Amino acid sequence: MKVVLGSGAYHMAEEVKMKASKYSKEVLDVEIKRFPDGEKYVRILGEGKEAVVVQSTFNPQDEHLIELLLLGDALKEKGFEHLKAVVPYLAYSRQDRVTKEGEPISVRAVMKALGIYYDELYVFDIHNPKTLEYFPGRAVNLSPARAIAEYFREKLGEGLVLAPDKGALARAKAVAELLNLEFSYFEKKRISPTEVQMTPVEVDVSGKNVLIVDDIISTGGTMVKAANILREMGAGKIFVVATHGVFAEGAIERVSKAVDELAVTNTIPTPVSKISLVEDILRL
Ligand code: R5P
Q1: Which residues does UniProt assign to the signal peptide (predicted)?
Q2: Cα 245 to ligand 1 centre (Å)
Q3: What is the model's pLDDT at position 173?
Q4: DSSP calls for 235-247
């Protein structure tokens, strides 16, 4: 099986090249450059029948998406018969419904376009797993729980795992079960139009190390609020982790100041993308 790395996976390239043979994979040479007018150019420099194309579609999202389509077209043109797209962070996945008349369901447009070339699609922790139904082939939502659990196993010790809200409980549960630890979530109660109260449900956090698990950190507001509450309740060390570090300006600093450690996976390259999903990708 050949592995093709788009520019949205260059931050994983060294590790992929080092570990590919362990998973019976071979990294294919690809030329990716830009025409003088700004358009992308890709060229596949190798042969094969099956390929896994790894391309995360973080900012610049549109450029990464176009490259993914061009790679699909080039591979099919070259005679590849079966293509898997691994898109660790899928752009537009949060635009999954029409909120104002006249809008698109953006994630559907992206899924359908990818389906022109790719037979299988793999993403990590997508915003709304139901949207994978828009992809015409096999589409799988992968969990980063194993990698997150391994990263925090020693640091957390006999601690507990929390989700910032009930909707994220399954994520915390998956990590906690791998570590054999207790898990729970923060209950959110609106106490005024501008204030939301957050309380961890049915767990005693005092003196315990806590890991808060979410899918995305954007402004960092959710994590900072949760961490401050845990401090007031006498928690031990506070660690926060998310699959996708979609950090707004200043968010890394804000969250880092409020907690003992902030880490995200490498679906998006950031200064705190300390948890690698490369082995999960190479297993596909
Ligand atoms: C919400 O549905 C998500 O799971 C995250 O909790 C949210 O996107 C985090 O946003 P922020 O970092 O801006 O609080």
Answers
A1: none
A2: 10
A3: 97
A4: -S-EEEEEEEE-P
pLDDT of residue 51: 98
Distance CA 93, CA 126 (A): 7
Tell whether ligand 1 has an atom less than 6 A from the beta carbon of residue 222.
Answer: yes
Binding site membership of 61 for ligand 1 (Cβ less than 6 Å): no
CB proximity list for 77: less than 8 A, separation 6 or greater: none
| CA 253 – CA 272 distance, rounded (Å) | 10
Strands 29-34 and 40-45, sheet pairing = antiparallel
Q: Percentage of the chain surpassing pLDDT 70?
A: 100
pLDDT tens profile 9-36: 999 999 999 999 999 999 999 999 999 9
Q: Which residues make Cβ contacts (< 8 Å) with residue 245, sequence separation at least 6?
A: 217, 252, 264, 265, 267, 268, 270, 272, 273
Nearest-angstrom CA–CA distance, 270 and 32: 22
Distance from the alpha carbon of residue 192 to the mean position of ligand 1, in angstroms? 20
For the chain, give every residue range classified as CATH 3.40.50.2020.
Answer: 2-142, 145-275
- Per-residue pLDDT, 164: 94
CATH class of 145-275: alpha beta
Residue 10 to residues 43, 70, 223, 268, 279, Cα–Cα distance (Å) = 16, 17, 29, 11, 15
Amino acid at 13: A
In this prediction the pTM is 0.94
**CATH architecture for the domain at 2-142:** 3-Layer(aba) Sandwich (3.40)
